[in-house]
């Protein structure tokens, strides 16, 4: 399980470190893809397989299903974890998430998220202000 938030810098070669406490869990390769809310999602290969199987089973006749599958699957790439625990972020994903030098790697249960530092703080402040409303809506869903 991935939990917490960690601040890193993208290096000159567009690599970012996986937090040391997660490296044994992620293995030698991860899948990085476009996430939601202008961040990147990083999945272990096992978690990616579960998600990809669900996306592959969506009905082709539904426009939203096709669009979401494209967003996640066509935007995905395998990334090797180097001996220092870093992964390479390709330009198209770096641009998608508006990543600058400072980034946040957030553990979100079954995935990691990579955020631009400034965007993360804006998102976090908004979420913290709206936490009561979110909790109420989730309560209606039985959470």
UniProtKB/TrEMBL annotation:
Pfam families listed in its UniProt record: MraZ
GO biological process: cell division; negative regulation of DNA-templated transcription initiation
Segments forming domain SpoVT-AbrB: 5-47, 76-119
Compartments, as annotated in UniProt: Cytoplasm, Nucleoid
Superkingdom as given in the UniProt entry: Bacteria
GO terms for cellular component: cytoplasm; nucleoid
Matching CDD domains: MraZ_C, MraZ_N
Oligomeric form and interacting partners: Forms oligomers.
Protein family according to the UniProt entry: Belongs to the MraZ family.
Name assigned to this protein: Transcriptional regulator MraZ
Gene (name only): mraZ
């Amino acid at each position: 399980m991935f939990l917490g938030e960690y601040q890193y810098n993208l290096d000159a070669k567009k690599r970012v470190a996986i937090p040391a406490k997660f490296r044994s869990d992620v293995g030698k390769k991860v899948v990085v893809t476009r996430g939601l809310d202008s961040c990147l999602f990083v999945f272990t290969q096992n978690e990616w397989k579960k998600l990809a199987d669900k996306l592959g089973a969506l009905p082709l006749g539904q426009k939203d299903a096709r669009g979401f599958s494209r967003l996640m699957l066509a935007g995905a790439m395998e990334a090797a974890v180097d001996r220092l625990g870093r992964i390479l972020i390709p330009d198209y994903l770096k641009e998608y998430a508006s990543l600058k030098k400072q980034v946040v790697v957030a553990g979100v249960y079954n995935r990691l998220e990579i955020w631009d530092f400034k965007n993360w703080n804006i998102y976090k402040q908004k979420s913290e202000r709206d936490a009561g409303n979110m909790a109420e809506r989730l309560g209606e869903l039985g959470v």
